[in-house]
Write a structure and sequence with these properties.
29% helix, single chain, Vcp-like ATPase, Chain A, domain 2, four-stranded antiparallel beta sheet, binds S-adenosylmethionine, alpha/beta, 2 domains, seven-stranded mixed beta sheet, 9 helices, Rossmann fold
Length: 353
């Protein structure tokens, strides 16, 4: 029986090419890729990779100066927060909520855009499984390349359910998909309202469209655009707040600090063609709400919706190129580990060629 993609990188003895997290007694965390003969140097001494390769995770190992390190494989949550990035990643708490609220199921056909660094792609691929299909669209070539390498590093191989395409989501969707053949659409991009027609065309009746946006103005604009199309129903929004807890003897309380804001989730269901949404008895209260109010809050002039105006930090091409190099190297090692060879194709000690 063959295992689902990526399983062997998540269990069993640690292998060369795999990533591990090592944590010292002060809680300092480093993520390293295991290389035969490799060493992790810190001002506290040297830890030999060979002392970890072939052994289990969950062990405590001692370095040349007698310092202890706890060794664990990074979970998906840890991986996405430590991997090289192009654009901002979807936080793990939101990725979990997205998979659940978009009702992404094994075997589903899912469209995703933009791909950014590929963090959400990994959660979606896990949810659709090897028998599903995830079509990911990204307009920036260098981000698509970083995402490709990150996804390959995480799964240790090409994922059979995945294809990534460079271009504008609204155009690509119409080019690639027959009408009403997609089960779920998940958008994490600056202007998802530009995709209303494309999503309405490709999404199957009853299909879920989920938007992840960073600001209330984007949330409002996309909600009104979806409502105005008349092709969707059950338009709902929420956000997920996650507050960590401090657990220390009798001092059990919420952490002092938390990530207070990441983004909003908005979901809508596709109506069957020609159907109108059921008129709800409880009407939205829209009195005293004029076109001018909407225009002031969410201007229709597209040139005003810039990343800077929405508070996004610009990403330099130089930084993207540096991160791409790192992502590709990690991916090469992870793929080699899956195949039992090193990054140059030579059999690893203890592996059959
Ligand atoms: C915040 S990032 C996505 C992060 C990603 N979900 C992750 O978890 O790593 C937004 C991405 O959308 C892309 N984008 C914006 N508008 C787009 C469009 N119309 N079509 C395709 N990609 C788009 C941007 O280039 C950017 O990479």
């Amino acid at each position: 029986m063959t295992h689902p993609t990526g399983v062997s990188a998540r269990r069993g003895p640690l292998r060369a090419g795999q990533r591990v997290q090592i944590k010292d007694a002060k809680g300092r965390l480093n993520t390293i890729t295991l290389i035969p003969g490799g060493e992790f140097h810190s001002y506290q001494g040297v830890l030999r990779h060979d002392d970890l390769i072939g052994g289990p995770e969950g062990v405590v190992v001692t370095n040349s100066s007698g310092r202890d390190y706890q060794v664990l494989r990074p979970l998906l949550n840890d991986f996405v927060l430590s991997m090289p990035r192009g654009a901002t990643v979807v936080y793990p708490k939101d990725a979990g909520a997205i998979v659940q609220q978009a009702d992404v199921f094994p075997g589903a056909t899912v469209v995703e855009a933009g791909v950014g660094s590929g963090a959400l792609s990994m959660s979606l691929l896990r949810a659709v499984g090897d028998q599903g299909r995830l079509y990911s669209y990204e307009r920036r070539e260098e981000f698509a390349e970083i995402a490709r390498a990150n996804v390959e590093s995480f799964f240790g191989a090409d994922h059979p359910a995945w294809s990534i395409h460079v271009g504008d989501a609204q155009e690509k969707m119409l080019e690639v998909h027959e009408p009403h053949t997609v089960d779920r659409v998940v958008l994490d991009m600056l202007a998802p309202w530009e995709c209303v027609d494309a999503v309405a065309t490709v999404l199957a009746p009853g299909g879920v469209w989920l938007n992840y946006v960073a600001t209330a103005t984007q949330l409002s604009r996309v909600a009104e655009a979806i409502r105005a199309s008349g092709k969707f129903t059950q338009i709902e929004a929420n956000e997920t707040l996650q507050r960590g807890w401090h657990l220390d003897g009798l001092a059990v309380r919420p952490d002092h600090r938390m990530v207070a804001h990441t983004g909003f989730l908005l979901t809508a269901r596709r109506l069957a063609s020609g159907e109108e949404a059921l008129t709800m008895k409880k009407r939205l209260k829209v009195s005293g709400f004029s076109r001018e109010d909407v225009e002031a809050w969410t201007p229709s002039d597209e040139s005003r919706w810039t990343p800077q105006a929405l508070g996004e930090r610009p990403r330099s091409d130089k930084k993207a190129r540096k991160n791409l190099k790192e992502a590709r190297l990690t991916a090469r090692r992870a793929r080699a580990a899956e195949q039992g060879v090193d990054a140059f194709g030579r059999a690893l000690p203890g592996e059959e060629a």
